[in-house]
Amino acid sequence: MKINKEVQMRDPFVFVDREQGKYYLFGSTDKNIWGKGTGFDVWIGNDLEHWEGPYPVFRPDIEFFSEENFWAPEVHEYKGSYYMFATFLLKDSGKRGTAVLKSDSLTGPFHPHSDGIITPDDWFSLDGTLHIDEDGKPWMVFCHEWVQVGDGQICAVRLSDDLKEAVEEPVTLFAASEAPWPTSFQHKTRNTRENYVTDGPYIYRAEDGELLMLWASFVDNVYAQGISRSTTGKVTGPWIHDEKPLFASDGGHGMLFHDLEGRLHLTLHSPNKTPDERPIFIEMEENDGVLRRREDG
Q1: Domain that holds residue 214
Q2: How many domains does the chain have?
Q3: CA distances (Å), 66 to each of 4, 12, 58, 107, 144, in order?
Q4: What is the pLDDT of residues 14-44, one digit of tens each?
Q5: CATH number (domain holding residue 90)
Q6: CA distances from 191 to 25, 198, 216, 295 (A)
Q7: Which one of the record's GO molecular function terms can you name (predicted)?
Q8: Mode of pairing for the β-strands spanning 191-195 and 185-187
C-alpha cells in the first residue's frame, strides 16, 4: 500500500494517460472541505509515489452557480475531450448536485459544460460518475443523499450524447440498507430516524465481463468501501451486494484503475477525517470477479 503523505485529498480519482506515460490525480482538496470552494487541482506523476503539483484546472468566475462544497471531481475522456463530473452546493436553492465541466486538456482549464447541475433540482445529490453502457450510451450513476431520504440511494440517469443534460428520469438502483454490510446511525440535527449513507459510486467492468460498482458507507461509524454486482451486466441491474466490505479501515470513496504496467489498483482516501485524509493506492488482484489485495501490494 502506498500513502501519499504530502497531498491532503478526499475522493481521489486517477486518470492514466498511456500515450504520455503519466498519471493525473484529481480530488477534493479544499482545506475546509465543508466550506467555501476554491476550485479543483491536478497532480501529475510518472509513478504512484512521486507527484508534481498542484496545478489549477478549474477556478469559478463570479457568475458560477456555486460557492461551497466543491467535491469529488472525476475526469473522463469522451469523444476526444475531457469531462469533469463534480459536486457543488447551489447558491440559489441550497441543494447539492453534480455538474459537468469540459476541457481539451487534462491540465485544464475546465469550463462549465452543463447548464448547472444535471441531477434533479430538488434533490440533495452528489458524486456523479460517468458510465458508457454496452450500446455506447452515456449514463451518470450518483447518490441521492441520506440527508434527504434517510436511507441513502444509488441512482442512474441517461444522459444526452453531448453530456449536457439528463434525457430521462433517474432510476433508483438500490438503497444502502439493502446491502448486508453498512450499519445505520442517528443524526442529532438532520433527523432522528435510522440513516444509511451512500457515497462515491464507481462502475468497473471486471475481466470476466461482470459489471461491478464500488461505493462507500459506514460500519459502526467507520468509513468503508463495498462492492455490488449487476446480475444482468447492465447499469440498471438488478444489483446484488457482497457480504463484507472490500476495505473497512476508515477509508472509502474509491475507484479502480490499471497502472501503466497493467496492474490493478484501488485508490481511496483514508482516514476519513479532515485534515488528515490522504490518497492511498493498494495493488489488487482479480480472480473470477473477486477482488482482493495482493499480498505484496
Answers
A1: 2-293
A2: 1
A3: 29, 21, 13, 22, 19
A4: 999 999 999 999 999 998 888 888 999 999 9
A5: 2.115.10.20
A6: 36, 16, 21, 42
A7: hydrolase activity, hydrolyzing O-glycosyl compounds
A8: antiparallel
